[in-house]
Amino acid sequence: MSEMNTKDFLIGSLIGGIVGASAALFLAPKSGKELRSDLSEQAQAAKERTNQLTTNAYEKGNEWASYAKEKSSTIAKVVSDQSTQVVDKVKEATSNLKSQAEEVQASAEEVVGDLAGDVQDAGEEIVETVKKEVDEIQAKVETGTATN
């Protein structure tokens, strides 16, 4: 058997109660005046009870609406705070990466400068060594041709 909906059950119970009460009133051995009086009293009681239930439902609805608004506001604030923290961390990380990149670039420029100076010094030494060797070879060639 399928599950019975609570709302349908309550509506059925209410209708059944009304029909049962009406049947009891009509079948009771009372005069017309007494019956109308009883019906009027029962109708007035039902009206008051309905008004009371309506008021309670309205109040509960307002309470739940306020509660939901409060909770959603709290959640929105938490999300906003966390988003701000994430943005700040990303900015900080970006700043750190930028400063590290600048440091690496400065170090690389320094190393390139040092290497360029070393290469230039080594090049000058090689040039002087080659000049000396050429001069020595030239001197040997000149002395060798002079002795021949």
Automatic annotation (TrEMBL):
InterPro entries: Desiccation-related_membrane, YtxH. PANTHER family: GENERAL STRESS PROTEIN, SLL0268 PROTEIN. This is General stress protein. It comes from Halalkalibacter akibai (strain ATCC 43226 / DSM 21942 / CIP 109018 / JCM 9157 / 1139).
